[in-house]
Fold this sequence. Notes:
Elements: H1 9-34, E1 38-40, E2 44-48, H2 50-56, E3 65-75, E4 78-87, H3 90-97, H4 106-131, E5 137-138, E6 142-149, H5 150-155, E7 164-173, E8 179-187, H6 191-202
Antiparallel strand pairs: 1-7, 2-7, 3-4, 3-5, 3-6, 4-8, 7-8
Amino acid sequence: MSTILNLSEDHRDCLQEITNVAMGQAGDKLARLLDTFVILSIPHIEVMAPSDIAMALQSLDGNDSVSGVCQGFIGGGISGEAMLIFNDTSFSDLAKLMKYDDVLDAQAERELLMDTTNVLFGACLKGIAEQIDMEFSYGSPMVLGQHVRLSDIFQRENNRWDHALVTEINYQLEGYDVNCDLLIVMTDSSMDIVLKKLDYLLE
Length: 203
């Protein structure tokens, strides 16, 4: 975990600004798709172990039922994954916004999850890559769980990495009960390159 601890306040501020721009672009794309106003939180950046993330998500209760999707990305020595965690109360309003008229069964919810994920992940990761002058390759999105506890979502991660740099932002839709957290997780092995990119931008 040595490299990841070298994150200075300047690095954190720079990364927060990069993320803010990228996640704002993603929020704008989602707002246009759903024709509604998207409320964004300020990005929260922290070094965490997988078991810490569930407790740290400020807007979701650990006992809430949630659904989640993740997508890996890699490029130029940086690897990580994006995760989207939805509060399960979001599905009915999300279906209305996406004009989905069929029965809202598990398959339909999965489609809504994937559609929203594709918009947010695509715009956000592209926005980050462009600002640090890199190109990412993406894995296929994968459902982490549907209607499970928050802690169960992160159980799978416990063996994948010890600590990572986690950037969290909360998206809410004005006037609707839609609440989701987007996480960008960058592993310790990526941090040398990330810090060099941030140093270049800070010069």
